[in-house]
Amino acid sequence: MIRKLRIKLIVACMFSLLLVLLVILGVAGILNYRELAANADGILAILSENGGSFPKQDHPVGGLALPYVFPKEGRRFSPELPYESRYFSVSLTESGTIVSVNTGKIAAVDTSTAIDYAQSVVASGRSQGFINDYRYAVCTSDSEKQIIFLDRGRELSAFRSFILTSAGVSAAGFLAVLLLLIFLSGRIVRPFSVSYEKQKRFITDAGHELKTPLTIIDADAELLEMDFGTN
Fold first, then answer.
1. Beta strand pairing call for 98-105 and 128-131
2. CB 147 within 8 A of CB 90
3. CA 28/CA 44 separation, integer angstroms
4. Structural contact between residues 111 and 90, judged by C-beta atoms closer than 8 angstroms
């Protein structure tokens, strides 16, 4: 009984811990992914509003460029953004005919690969999303549509590393808590074990104490029956 109680205690605690860890990891992962996607969408919005390239920044007093601002969310980006970003774009007509391909701001993608990506996006029918490590946005005008792809490889790699590291740390913590709980659960249930053993001893002793006089009474009754018979 005590062993079953100990096992139930360990299972309940570890299940609760596992549930909490999964919720924390899930929420942290979702929030990080949404922030990554929101930053990418902000950069793509700036590119979309300027025909697939970054606008030239004015240099006010002091010669320092102002940060880029995404008006929709008030998100601000570093003036170094054009030099940090790797992107390419494909323009095509409504019928799917390729009009132009711009791969001048990226070295990992050639013209044919860019066209393949664009055709995959057109076939999916989505206006934004991820294809491999590239976040894309579709901009539609009267005569044609432009699909801009932004390289998010480093950010996605950091995101995956964060998830794997968090999962590893959580697993190690889970095992550490399990070992501690196995060790401490013995002390936790010890008072119940002592109480249970005392109860068993009491019942056994009480049984012996009651059995002895009952045996004597039964023997005396048999003697009386032999002497006087039964009425």
1. unpaired
2. yes
3. 24
4. no
- 65, 79 contact by CB (below 8 A): yes
> What is the Cα–Cα distance from 174 to 168, expressed in whole angstroms?
10
**C-alpha torsion sign, points 30, 33, 35, 41:** negative
pLDDT higher than 70, residue 176: yes
Q: Give the whole-angstrom CA distance, residue 119 versus residue 18.
A: 43
Which token pair is 61?
């007093």
Residue 13: predicted pLDDT: 86
Q: How far apart are CA 173 and CA 164, in angstroms?
A: 14
For 90-123, the pLDDT digits (tens) are 999 888 889 999 999 999 999 999 999 999 999 8
* Terminal Cα distance for the chain, rounded: 50
Q: Which amino acid is at 97?
A: T
Three-class DSSP category at 134? strand
- The whole-number pLDDT of residue 80 equals 79
